[in-house]
Design goal:
The chain has about 325 residues and is α/β, with parallel strands linked by helices. The chain has one domain: Alpha-Beta Barrel (TIM Barrel). Helices cover about 45% and strands about 20% of the residues. Helix 1 links the parallel strand 1 and strand 2. The longest helix has 20 residues. About 45% of the residues are buried.
């Protein structure tokens, strides 16, 4: 049985003079979740912003897409996420990854270790975080972290711990996600520490199917049910139009994909409303991806997407 469709919006920040109205409008449109990325550029701090957004909404889930394991200690992540889960009444989705944007590390003076080291650090952090959500005391002695009898993050008051969302693009990270995550974001690999012209091609339909298989392998190896995992994708381009041939050709030229691959790539939601709906239904059937996140920069796009895509697909479950 496939997971029901859900739709989220990613924002870096909102206008200071109307952020309450804007976020309530996104909630009213029917979106499931508001996400913030975790970078050091001109964006809001995700933890602070998510607490504020949760305070002025009633239903909207609030999540990180995704925190970088190297930017904060896992004890800090555990306490912040548990606190946000309580304040939001159980609406926090805790997204975390191994980090990728080299410029953030350089600008902040944080050592930029090779991907394998960052992934190992993430696995240790996840063990600490989950333990601090559920146990009275946590001790941990690993390669990167040593914790001594630290207290529970906070009492959750009968609320379940936050769902864990792990985003990634390579085999090791996605198998880790299969072992630990409730939600897995299927992303392109960014081993160069930046988005390049070749990045989108790693989200071609063929590559996405391979990435899903890595997650399932990780879950099975850990004795988990792969079908219980909710699969997520983030779209960078959303264009609802009866004529997108020019846009698809441009995206194909810049990404190294064929026009046909662009039409099926999760990074690009292009075409008529009916075509996009049919494509998302087919994608869910073939890959299990049911949780779609789009960019929140254009209120008109959000409104059209909600009416033409979100509401019809949400109605079918």
């Amino acid at each position: 049985m496939p997971h029901p469709f859900r739709f989220g919006v990613q924002i870096a920040k909102l206008p200071a003079d109307r952020w309450r109205d804007d976020i309530r409008q996104i909630e009213a449109m029917g979106y499931s979740t508001i996400f913030l990325p975790d970078h050091f550029g001109d964006q809001w701090d995700p933890t602070t912003a998510l607490a504020g957004l949760a305070a002025v909404t009633d239903r909207l889930k609030v999540g990180s897409l995704v925190y970088d394991v190297d930017y904060r200690h896992p004890v800090v992540y555990a306490k912040a996420a548990a606190t946000l889960q309580v304040l939001s009444g159980g609406r926090h989705e805790f997204g975390i990854g191994a980090g990728w944007m080299e410029t953030d590390y350089v600008e902040a003076g944080i050592p930029y270790d090779r991907p394998g080291v960052r992934i190992s650090r993430l696995e240790e952090a996840l063990q600490i975080i989950r333990s601090m959500w559920t146990n009275e005391r946590t001790s941990f002695d690993g390669e990167f972290y040593r914790i001594r009898e630290i207290a529970r993050a906070t009492e959750l008051g009968g609320i379940a711990p936050p769902k864990i969302l792990i985003g990634g693009g390579g085999p090791r990270l996605l198998r880790l996600a299969g072992r630990h995550a409730d939600i897995v974001g299927i992303n392109p690999r960014m081993v160069d520490g930046k988005i390049t012209a070749e990045t989108p091609a790693d989200s071609s339909p063929e590559r996405v199917r391979q990435k899903i298989q890595w997650v399932r392998e990780g879950a099975e190896a850990a004795g988990r049910d792969p079908d219980a995992i909710e699969f997520n994708s983030l779209s960078f381009v959303t264009a609802i139009s009866d004529d997108v041939s020019g846009l698809r050709s441009a995206l194909a030229s810049s990404s190294g994909m064929t026009v046909e691959q662009v039409a099926d790539c999760p990074l690009f939601l292009t075409g008529s409303a009916q075509e996009i709906r049919e494509r998302l239904e087919r994608q869910r059937e073939e890959t299990g991806i049911s949780y779609i996140v789009i960019q929140g920069g254009d209120p008109g796009v959000l409104e059209t997407f909600a009416k033409e895509i979100l509401q019809p697909l949400a109605a079918i479950g």
